[in-house]
Write a structure and sequence with these properties.
seven-stranded mixed β-sheet, N-terminal domain of TfIIb
Amino acid sequence: MADETALRTCPLCEATCGLEITLRDGAVHRIRGDMEDPFSKGFICPKGSTLKQLQADPDRITTPLIKRDGVHVEASWDEAFDAIAAGLRKHLETDRNSVAVYLGNPTVHNLAAGVFARVLVQALGSRNIYTASTVDQMPKHVACGLLYGAPSSLTVPDLDRTHFLLMLGANPAASNGSLCTAPGFPDRLDAIRERGGTVVLIDPRRSETVSHVTQHHAIRPGSDAFLLAAMCNVVFDEGLVDLGAVESYVRGLDEFRGLIAPYTPVVAERMTGLDASTIMTLAREFAAAPSGAVYARMGANTARFGTVNAWLAEVLTMITGNLDTPGGLMFATPATGTPVGPEAGGRGWRSGRWHSRVSQRREMMGELPTVCLAEEIMTPGEGQIRALITLQGNPVLSLADATKTDEALASLEFMVSFDIYLNETTRRADVILPGCSPLERSHYDLAFTGLSVRNVAKWSPPVFQVQRPTDDEILARLALILSGLDHRADPSLVYDGALLNVLTRAAQNPNSPAFGTDPLSIVSQIIGRSPADRVLDALLRTGPYGAGFGDDNDGLSLGRLMDTPHGLDLGPLLPRFPGFLQTADGTINIADVAFAEDLRRLADAVVETPTDLVLIGRRHLKTNNSWMHNLEILTKGNNRCTVHVHPTDADRYGVVDGGSAKVTSVAGEVIVEVEVTDTIMPGVVSIPHGWGHTYEGAHLSVAQRRPGVNVNILTSTELADAWSGNAALNGVPVTLAPT
């Protein structure tokens, strides 16, 4: 049999690299980068080629599991759904808030989950919705929501045209980018320098990204806000403010200047450890550059002042004339996005429509912070969570205070998980529904095209067909149960509802190609091999580049993407104001009261000399998340789950390279191998996230041979960003001792 070639987008991180997959005798023979992909141009990282091993992983679940007498056993699909209906029935009938949903990171890499998880959540009608967004990125949503009127209006650095990139708490050489979709991110950093630009990295570690930057400055974890506020002060004090293209929309300049006045370069030096003169030079050079962007990511978001960090990053870019302009912070125009008109203004954004029952944390974007999940399960009273649905997540390893999280899951009356592994979290489930592998479903990046440094669109068909329920059907049957219907009912009730919802919204939007159409009359024109594909076709046809339902053959549709399997380049990022500005009054208030309140909290953190030893996380290119640790090809070699300790601290605390140390926080303690290295600044230690494969009942044969330690045993739900509720996983006070 001759070899066949399949093209698709890698779903393992946010870079969305194109893959060329060679099939031989019905199996994957080889995977390499797609040289004809207009966006990734052949770039591939070590993870992309391992879809072959993931597809063949003997630990991957393909048949439903039901827990009987404490042991998971195989069951039929009908048996599994019957058990779910029975387990959830009393909770759905008495108090829907007693059922919670957790959406994990992989759901955003899954087209069916991207379409139907929302339907499932709506069918449940519970206020207890939790996602990975409040593990690592909610501060960015809050800042952009308050500034621009919609929390989904996230800025991205225009990497390919900028002259000055300031990165805080980011390591794209390991992560491939986060909230910034840019295949070959390190190469793009090199290109900035090659064209005479500047790349500055602010990070407590001399990470893998350092070899791609112009300057690296180590600062104390959690002090980013002091640096950014001080840089803003310099811009004001030296008359460098230039709002550029957004000048007519910005208000609150004087109030903002008053808010940040106390945070001078001298104060910032004390808090960050970075010389005041260096801070002033950075500010001047950033303001003087032909274009510039601030990219503040994981280390800046997962901190006690994550929202302040995200806000100040936007404002620093804004007051130097770099918002919504080439080379600055810009907004993508995704093919499945909602078309907007020429005028500024909209409904604006608000949060806090409800609060968590125990600690009164505010709702954001329809969800509650994950730091609330365990306490909402374990605290008795009306509204207590007694049942949980997890979709492709591993909160036992990914959420703050892992010990409390695991205890909470163990106390539930019922739990169901949609996952391909029996992992540290799903071992607690009463029923596990195995989804399809990445090669067994079609693919389109609904989320990441909205965070892309270039506007692109690419659809990939399944490489392999399955003879069992697809992800569309699994999620639809769950939604039927949550709606009070029998799971054996026709899933088209769910499919058609999702499709008509898209078409109805488009028909009511005067800026959509489908404006004024009758949704029922155009359904017959929608194509797609799966229900999720049909919804995708509707989104594409009614989006900013959409073909609509007339004779516009140049417009975008699923059919056109099928005809261009390498993907479509839709052009560079373009200015999107004023129409994209959705605040109620059509302006950007950079001194919003929410920011002012949070900045006052920052004042309480000012001390003469910070002395605590603090913990940060880290990533590795091969093993970004816990679900990649069961592939031998990605985890072989030296132990990656070590604690990085600076030589000065190693001497101070009596630990040695290759030995072990006890790391202790208010939440717990772990014993971990020591790696003494000058790549981390004194006063800081680092342990990677996603490890800790030591939990009895999980079945991850490769991961359990190299278990590592769960760093989230050390993180605390008490250390969260006050405004967004995002977990503070960096800057955690710890002690260190030899064992």
